[in-house]
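User: Sequence in, structure out. Go.
Assistant: Echoing your sequence, followed by the structure tokens.
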Amino acid sequence: MNEQTDRQTEIISAAFTLIANQGVQKLTIKKLGQAIGVSEPAIYRHFASKRDILVGIVERLIAIKNETWQRAQAEKESPLAALQLFFTLQSQRFEEFPPLAIMLFPEDIFRNDPELLSRIHLVMKSTTQDIEALIREAQKQGHIRSTIDAQTASLLVTGGFRLVVSGWRSEQRIQPPVRLLKQVELFLHNTIEILK
């Protein structure tokens, strides 16, 4: 997909919200139209089908991950600072738009579309490998013990982050809402201390 128009971005944002609140099974063109106040034919002017909207979601997820990763890589202080910044930026995005957190749970969205699920899994695998590389670099610099396997450390960080986000998603109806960023910062601090 090429760069999205403003209306396509609006439709995809509404799709994220519908999926996050009701599940992908309830995502329909009619409900999308109602969510943004346009007719079904107006949605079809921007996307030929529901699957095209799901492709747009995948493209948005990939773009967000790439942008966040690039911003984190600009952190030159240390690999651990880049690692922390990546997860902090993701947390900020989730707090700004909570439905976006579904990106960590692609099986819920794409289980009936192996092609799209495969694309998301490739992105997740690539991210895990990038995190492993940061951990190996931190080990070379003496910031993390070299006796810890980088793949295991990467799984510890990414799996723990996913668990923190999952808990935060389930607590969103609590007043006042739980701050994800604070939870993630504490998790990252404690996890890095364990790895040192």
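User: And one key feature?
Assistant: Residues 114-140 form the longest helix (27 residues).
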